[in-house]
Design goal:
Layout (H helix, E strand, L loop, with lengths): L4 H6 L11 H15 L4 H17 L1 H17 L4 H7 L3 H16 L7 E6 L5 E8 L2 E6 L4 H12 L3 E5 L5 H17 L7 E3 L6 H6 L8 E5 L2 H10 L12 E5 L5 H13 L8 E7 H16 L4 E4 L1 H8 L6 E4 L13 E7 L2 H11 L4 E5 L3 H10 L4 E4 L19 E2 L7 E2 L6 E8 L7
Parallel strand pairs: 3-4, 3-6, 4-5, 7-8, 7-12, 8-11, 9-10, 9-11, 12-13
Antiparallel strand pairs: 1-2, 2-16, 14-15
Length: about 450
């Protein structure tokens, strides 16, 4: 009996020519999307529960496939941040199962009325939420995204074509087998979730032009991927996910408690987009605060890239942290690693100016006990999520009560911040008349 592509890869093959017919995938996705749009909430929830159950049942196969991907990534010299994103383990599988079941409990936005009114001419006009249609999602070394996107798309009645990174191919093939097995058990079209099962990057360019079938492109990756999607796509693109995230420690902040927030924002999971990249500290508390936070961050091996007064303070205090002079581009970096930019600023004005000059409008926060300063910060920083006395790590669909997320959008149109269920819908106008004709 011939082995499936996933089984072939599980057995250690590193080069597999997997057949892809993108036109056929697009047609199948469009047809599946029309079918999904007619499903009841109960039917969609049944599909999600089936995926959660199947993922538990096949966890061993998924972890075995992922172990080969991780070994391959390590052999290719992937850095620690990418390897962390690539890795699945029993706890992360359990988290994916739990997230999938939580989505079942969330309200289904499809079919809800946004507004309804009676026009003077007697027509009843309303706006109703509907699925977007077919999503094309391009992502890199995060196999958990396969489950996150598939489950959110199914709950909102959207079909999806996935293109994961080549380094996650074994993992993604195993996860797609899980999803398809689950969908078949509940009589839901497997073509609702499809994977471009080839590492050839040429398929990305073709997906970006599949506008006959795909309604929205969502890139999840670095700046190069976002630039490629914006420049080459003939389909609307939702951009975001690149986080150059800041915390500003105000002169009124509770310094002891601020250390814990900074440590969480930087260390809790440094390889993700909402982890802290730059720490700004008010000059009036810098001498006291910087040694405190440096000592705490030294426990986790964080390297501090400091400039000006911050560099002078950190170099002259015995805190155990590695301190390096910041380079000219260091405050424009999304580190995705245990590295933190540090700068002393005169006041709130300089902090806001720095964030405007160097930030990516992803996740930024202020630590303060001065609510006038907090209000100014919230009003003047237009990031997708702005925090007062909280870690930037909370900019997450699960933490915001949205379930999982497809991406964190930093653009201004359609969606901002974590893209959960409502952000995967659009709407249509419905006019109910009595054989009205326009005069």
């Amino acid at each position: 009996m011939a082995m499936s592509a996933a089984e072939t890869l599980h057995n250690g093959a590193t080069q597999v020519d997997l057949h892809v017919d993108l036109e056929e995938m697009g047609r199948a996705a469009k047809a599946a999307g029309r079918k999904l749009a007619t499903l009841t909430t109960a039917q969609k929830n049944a599909a999600l529960l089936a995926i959660a159950d199947e993922l538990e049942t096949q966890a061993g196969q998924v972890l075995a496939a992922n172990a080969l991907d991780v070994a391959g990534g390590r052999a290719k010299g992937l850095g620690d941040a990418l390897l962390d994103r690539l890795t699945l383990n029993p706890a992360r599988i359990a988290g994916l199962v739990a997230d999938t079941r939580r989505i079942v409990d969330l309200p289904d936005p499809v079919g809800t009325e946004l507004e309804s009114r009676l026009l003077p001419n007697g027509i009843r006009l309303s706006r109703r939420r509907i699925p977007i249609g077919v999503l094309g999602v391009i992502y890199e070394a995060r196999p958990n995204v396969t489950i996150d996107i598939a489950t959110l798309a199914l709950k909102t009645g959207n079909a999806v074509i996935l293109r994961g990174g080549s380094e996650t191919l074994r993992s993604n093939l195993a996860l797609i087998e899980v999803i398809h097995a689950a969908l078949e058990k509940v009589n839901c079209p497997p073509a609702a979730v499809q994977l471009i099962a080839s590492p050839d990057r040429a398929w990305i360019a073709q997906l970006l032009r599949l506008d006959q079938y795909v309604d929205m492109i969502i890139p999840r990756g670095g700046a190069a991927l976002h630039k490629l999607a914006k420049e080459q796509s003939t389909i609307p693109v939702i951009t975001g996910g690149i986080g150059i995230c800041h915390l500003y420690v105000d002169e009124s902040a509770d310094l002891a408690r601020s250390v814990a927030v900074v440590e969480n924002a930087k260390v809790q999971r440094p390889s993700v987009c909402n982890s802290l990249d730059t720490l700004l500290v008010n000059r009036r508390v810098a001498d006291e605060f910087l040694p405190l936070v440096a000592s705490e961050l030294a426990r986790s091996g964080v390297e501090l890239r400091a400039t000006g007064e911050a560099l002078d303070i950190l170099r002259h205090d015995r805190h155990g942290a590695q301190v390096v002079e910041a380079g000219p581009d260091d405050f424009d970096q999304e580190w995705l690693a245990l590295i933190l930019g540090v700068k002393v600023v005169d006041d709130l004005d300089e902090a806001i100016a720095h964030i405007h000059a160097h930030g990516s409008e992803h996740s930024d926060g202020i630590l303060t006990n001065n609510w006038q300063n907090a209000t100014r910060f919230v009003n003047e920083i237009n990031s997708s999520a702005v925090f007062v006395n909280a870690s930037t790590r909370f900019n997450d669909g699960g933490q915001f009560g949205l379930g999982a997320e497809v991406a964190v959008s930093t653009q201004k149109l359609h969606a901002r911040g974590p893209m959960g269920l409502e952000e995967l819908t659009t709407y249509k106008w419905i006019a109910l008349g009595d054989f009205h004709v326009r005069p």
